[in-house]
Structure formats: structure tokens, C-alpha cells
Amino acid sequence: MNTLKQLQSGVLKGAVSLKLSEGLSHFPPEIFELADTLETLDLSGNKLNALPPDFGRLKKLKILFCSDNQFTVLPAVLADCPLLDIVGFKANIIEMVPAASLNPNLRWLILTNNRVMALPAQIGNCSRMQKLMLAGNLLSELPRELSQCSNLALLRISANRLNKLPQWLLSMPRLSWLAFSGNLFNEKPAVQPIALVDWSHLELKHVLGEGASGIISKATWNNGGERKDVAIKIFKGAVTSDGLPDDEMNACITAGSHPGLVQVIGQISAHPARKKGLVMELIPSNFFNLGNPPSFESCTRDVFKQGMSLTATQVHKIAATIASVAAQLHSKGIMHADLYAHNTLINDEGTTLFGDFGAACFYNRAYTPTANALERLEVSAYGYLLDDLLGLCNDAKSDKDLIRLARLRDECLATEVLLRPGFEYINDQLQ
């Protein structure tokens, strides 16, 4: 974090990155003194509602974040920065997205949690677009021209007002991570009741982790005199970049029991702040994340620790487990929508646990054309996971099983959506 005082004193001259969050109500003109070097500008957490008309002077700017401000219109001056690649205006009060604001160079656009009612047709000119985050707005339809964005791989449209899921989305060649829960067309699933765990029977220990939708903590559960260490997830209750917490909780419950899923024990009742939550089996401490979330550079593809490698046995066990889990989810009409290595936990033996249902969506399996297409969008995400796994194994080009796995990867990544195999077939091939 930098300070305005540092900027004004000149000590930041030559900076490539600048982050200011000091309740600013106006764009500091001193930022232009960094125009020859500045590539990343983060002005999140201020009170800004406009950018200066000469904003395009920042000719080297690649990344701009203006989340948690007071913008009501996406600024048209964004189009004046020729190298602008990533733009984030999460949690403003944006109602309008002018055609002029859509810089055709954009690869990643974040408009989560605003009041956007419509997108202009000119979004189809953003041919580089790979990632588009629109959850938590007021969209009643998507422009058909979005289908021209043939590189679009991840789309979040949860918690809007869409009356139907556009069918043209289901034939986009690279779309692999699609979240759409919380719209008018969504069917509410009949979630089977599970055991209730009274909050007073839980003793919180410490926080294990925090995500967009909730906080996971270690706790001890006093179950009729028997004490058991568990994990609990308390949902925050707000719209996330992926969707609604209620949908996540319902998906976790409906997913059912599987060796590759973290087992849900029960649903928390009588929380003092009336928050919703789940009690889950505690993941053994020897499990670790297979991958890390995408970087700015990789955009939609996970990144991995330097020097990480997997054996052929580990690759096969991970691939087989995820295929089996995905087959079970889709048999229940659940699209995970975030099938990634960073949501996959493994141990040294390759035993695998798959989680994070924050983007999960329910769909009607009975409507075969849409159901088949939605499943095969997720199959594409699985294909990218296979590609990552094979890239981490030195034996990928010599091991016969992994050579077959590479052929399966190619089938999963076919640009013609309905030519991809379903998860039941994939599971049969790997078990």
C-alpha cells in the first residue's frame, strides 16, 4: 500500500505499480507523473465517482482496479489506454456501461455487485476477453454479440434477473466455467433435510481459512457427550463474485456422500447472529492445495508452485477421483462451475478431495439438450485440469496410461461442445 504523501513527494517516481486507499474523492493528478512507467493502478476503497478526461495519458497502464468506490457509470476514458488488459469495478453503484467504455483490448472485466441493467452490443468487439464477472447486477438479458468473444472461458452471471439462459452461450468454443445461479430462470432444488447441529454444541478453535462466501474454522462438536473435531463454515450472506451463499450450501448438501468430497455432517442451527452454516468433517492436515488460483497473466488457468511435480500414479488417482465426483454431481443436476486445481486438495499418495461449491448451479437434467451442453462445458474445465496434471508429470509422454489420458484431454477440449464426452464416459474410462 502506498500513500498520497509519498506520491506527492515524488519518492514513487518510476513506480510500475501504485495502490492508494485513503478515502479519496478525486483522482490525484500526481499519478500522471508516473505515466512513463505505471502498469498497475489500484484505487479501490476510495470515494471516487469519475476518472479525469485525460486518463489516457497512462499509456502503459495494463491493470486498473477501482472497486469499492462510488462510480455510477463505467468511465468511457478506459478506452483511451491502449494496453489496458484487466479492469475491476466491483462493488460500486454502476448502472450504465457505455459502449465507449469497453476497451477492445480487455481480457478480464470485473463488474460484480453493481446495478448494471444492460450491456452494449459492442462488448462483442472485445475479442481478447477471457474472463467476464457480472454476478450481482440487474441484467435481464445478455447481448447476442457476446457470442463473438470466442476466447471467453469464464463467465459469472449469477444473482441477476435473467429470464432464461441464452442457448448461444452453450456453443461457445472455449467457455468452461459458467456460473448462473440466482436468476429468474433457476429452478429451486428440493434439498433433502440433513441433521441440525445446535450452535451451543460447538466450541470454536481457530480460523482455518476464509473465502468470498464464508469463514471456515476448526471447532469441537459436543455430540451427546462425544467430542469430535470438525470444520464449520459460516456463510457471510452477501453476493460473491461467483454467486449466492444459499446456492452454495444447497449444492454442498445435495452433492451427497463421495470419497472425493468433504463429508457434510449437518447444518448449523440457532446461530446467535442467525447466520447459516455447515458442519463438515475435518480435512486431515497432510492434505494441500493441488494448485493456486489464476494469476493476472494466466487469467483463467491455474498456476503451480515452482518445481512441483506429480508421479504417473498421482496423476491417474487425481484424474479418476475428479471424474467420479463430477459424474455424481451432474447425475444430480449440479454444475460445479469452478472445476480447478486450486479447489482440489491432495496428499502425497494422490488421495483427492474436491470442494468449494461457491459457484455451483442447479440445472434440470430432464431437459436433455441444455443438460448435455452444460455438462460438456464443465468437461472442458476438466480437460484443462488434465492438461495441468500432465504438465506436472515427467512421464507424461512415455507412460502408456498418461498417453491415453492425453488423448482423453484432447476429446474434452474439442471446440464443438457436443462432441465432447460426458462425465459418465470419462469416469468409465478411468476407473
Could you characterize the architecture of this molecule?
- There is one protein chain.
- This protein is of the alpha/beta class and 431 residues long.
- The protein has three domains: 4-179, Leucine-rich repeat, LRR (right-handed beta-alpha superhelix), CATH 3.80.10.10; 196-281, Phosphorylase Kinase, domain 1 (2-Layer Sandwich), CATH 3.30.200; 288-430, Transferase(Phosphotransferase) domain 1 (Transferase(Phosphotransferase), domain 1).
- It has helices at residues 4-9, 245-255, 312-331, 368-391, 400-412, 423-430, and strands spanning 17-19, 40-42, 63-65, 86-88, 108-110, 131-133, 154-156, 177-179, 196-198, 202-210, 214-223, 226-235, 264-269, 277-281, 288-289, 334-335, 344-346, 352-354, 361-362.
- An eight-stranded parallel sheet has the order 1-2-3-4-5-6-7-8.
- The radius of gyration is 23 Å and the shape is globular.
- The protein starts with a helix and ends with a helix.
- The relative contact order is 0.08.
- The mean pLDDT is 94.
